[in-house]
Design a protein that fits this description.
This protein has a single domain, classed as Rossmann fold, CATH 3.40.50.360. The protein is built from eight helices and eight strands; from the N terminus they run E-H-E-H-E-H-H-E-H-E-E-H-E-E-H-H. Strands 1, 2, 3, 4, 5 and 6 form a six-stranded parallel beta sheet that branches. Strands 7-8 form a two-stranded antiparallel sheet. Bound molecules: flavin mononucleotide (FMN). Flavin mononucleotide binds next to helix 1.
């Protein structure tokens, strides 16, 4: 099997982000399954709020971010739940990407919430992936009650940790899956071509 490269984008900029911790665990599992991995920590990228009138090359580190995502065979998107959806840093990063970064790629989803399960954040990320013609893993990881889910940077619940690790393994396992026919949402996505 050709080497698989898995890239994870962490949608929280917080120093103690639990989303980042969880994505790191998923990437560890992907590495154990034979992949090379990279965590994209958006704190390290200068990403101005997206402006469709500005070329990506003129928008801070946006072109660098897109290049990193393009290198991936499989992508993990991780986000905290913000106001019932996924976070604005992740949205900004995704808006700088398009079909070249996502089309026919395998994507795994992970979301973290302070309250109950972040189902809507996962659903909204899944919708974005449909509009970009990515193939989203059926398995997804949801971490509720984030303040009590980790102690000293470690998962409290081994079953939850296993769900997260499974996300990383599945990303490798299905990285080369045959693409689906184009989604009807992508047909309307006039902003995703030739960014
Ligand atoms: C602006 C904002 C909005 C939030 N909205 C929700 C929400 O709608 N539902 C929820 O359960 N938690 C919500 N939270 C809590 C975060 O999802 C939770 O603290 C999460 O752990 C943050 O992820 P992080 O540790 O990776 O930064 C919100 C937090 C912030 C800062």
């Amino acid at each position: 099997m050709a080497a698989i490269h898995v890239v994870a984008i962490a949608g929280s900029l917080r120093e103690q982000s639990t989303t980042r911790i969880a994505l790191q665990r998923a990437l560890e599992a992907a590495a154990d399954a034979g992949a090379s991995t990279e965590l994209i920590d958006l704190r390290e990228y200068d990403l101005p709020i997206f402006d469709a009138d500005r070329d990506r090359e003129e928008a801070g580190d946006a072109a660098l971010l897109a290049a990193r995502v393009r290198e991936a065979d499989a992508i993990l998107l991780g986000s905290p739940m913000y106001h019932g959806s996924y976070s604005s840093p992740l949205k900004t990063a995704l808006d700088y990407c398009g079909f070249d970064e996502f089309r026919d790629k395998t994507v795994g989803l992970l979301a973290v919430s302070g309250g109950s399960f972040p189902v809507t954040a996962l659903e909204h990320m899944r919708s974005v992936c449909r509009a970009l013609n990515a193939w989203v893993l059926p398995h997804e990881a949801a971490i509720a009650n984030s303040h009590s889910a980790f102690e000293d940077g470690e998962f409290v619940d081994p079953d939850l940790e296993e769900r997260v690790a499974t996300l990383g393994r599945r990303a490798v396992q299905y990285a080369t899956i045959e693409p689906e026919p184009a989604s009807f949402e992508s047909d309307q996505n006039v902003g995703a071509e030739g960014k």
